[in-house]
Each structure stands twice: as structure tokens, then as C-alpha cells.
Amino acid sequence: MRFVIALALTAIIGVGCDPYAGQTETDVVIDAVTAADRVPLDVETVLGDLETVWDMIWAPDGSMWFSERAGRISRFDLAERTRTVVGEVPNVLESGEAGLMGVALHPDFPDTPMVYAVHSYDTGSGIGNRLVRMRFEDGSLGSPEVLLNGWAGRRNHDGSRIVFGSDGFLYITMGDAGNRPVSQDLSSLNGKILRLTAEGEPAPGNPFGDHIWSLGHRNPQGLVFHPNGMLYSA
Question: What are the residue boundaries of the Glucose/Sorbosone dehydrogenase domain, all occurrences included (predicted)?
Fold first, then answer.
């Protein structure tokens, strides 16, 4: 079985020209996956007894760091199969899908031993989310420094995936916190992808206000860079 996808590429040459002038059509043929294409997978449990793992990242030494929504950040040595809880972020509010979420290591880690995280907290009138960073020293995380707060949280639609790009800037996804119109509101950080310096300041060149790199998002929780530099969000 084969699927044919027609891709129309339209070029507008000038005012008064035929609107279909310059249009070309290219057929892209994609073979369907069949049962014969299936590859058997072996599943091996390398670590258990975890509580709502939210994020997993890889350190330069090959170890895996991960967050649990209740507030813990751990380092897992794959060679030794050992887990070390390196810290527990204080004042984390775990409620529904909210809690400790995205984590990232500074691009120059461990030479610059900073660990970044986004977590939910109790504002006194509801749920808020904020970006913090902590110094990793002597095998544990220090006290968090708040780099950015002031965007609404909720029991769901919190976004909060964070990743450093090859440009050295920190990209953060923001959910709409269940309020769809704010994703188009430039006065709100919700429903956006933000782009910050490693110090938490607005990155130069952002196209939509101080912090905003992209807008119109519902609840982006996937964020990854292709090797060609293209940013993909899911």
C-alpha cells in the first residue's frame, strides 16, 4: 500500500499575474509500514520504585538525570545501575499534572555546575509556575534561585519543558493553564515558548516582546532541537 502526498508550492510573481502561475506539484511517495517491518523489542527495567517521573536528560558523563513531580531530582549511573537523589526542590506544589517538571543542565556543565528546573508552587490564591536554578556541588544541589516567575499554573496545561539550544539560550514551554485566549495575548507568558539567557534574562532578538520566542500554544510539553538547528515542539 502506498500513499501519495501532493505538495503544492506557490510563487506569486507580481500584481495582476495569474494566481496559479509558478505553481508546481511534487509527488512524495511514502511506503506504508506492514507487519513484516516490525522489529521485536526487549524491555529491561533498570530502575524502579519511582513516583511520576517527569523529565529525563543526559549529562556529559553519560549519567541520566531525572525529575519526579513530587520534587526530587536524581542522578542515575547507567554503568553502575545506581541512583543518587541529588536534591529535593523546596516549596513544590504537586497537584494533578503540576509539580516539579522540566530540568536542564547548563551548556557548560559541569564546568558551570548549574541545574535549572521549573516547578509549581502555591501563590496563596492559586497555582503558579517558576523557573529556578541550583548549583550542583559536592554531589548535591544547593538552594534554588528564582530566575523567572509570574505565569499562571493549573492542575493541567502547565507546559514547562526546558532545553538549552546551541545558541546557549534557554527555551521554556508555557501551557495556557486552561485559558485559551492568553496564548495570543502578548502581555501573558502563558501559551508561549520563551527564550532566555542562562541568567534568566530575555534573550536578544526575541520577536514577540521581552521573553517570547513563539506564541499560540495550548500545552507544549515536548521540545527538542534537530541537528540542523530546527526547534520542534509537541
Answer: 50-233
Q: Where does the pLDDT of residue 15 fall: very low under 50, low under 70, confident under 90, or very high at 90 and above? A: very low
The CATH number of the domain where 82 resides is what? Answer: 2.120.10.30
Residue 208: closest CA among 233, 175, 186: 186
Q: Does the pLDDT of residue 85 top 90, yes or no?
A: yes
φ, ψ (nearest 5 deg) of residue 102: -70, 145
Co-location of 85 and 175 in the same domain = yes
Angstrom distance (rounded) from CA 148 to CA 164: 16
Report the distance separating Cα 133 and Cα 137, nearest Å.
13
pTM: predicted TM-score of the whole model, two decimal places: 0.82
Domain, as residue range, for 213? 53-233
Q: pLDDT tens digit string along 26-36?
A: 666 667 778 88
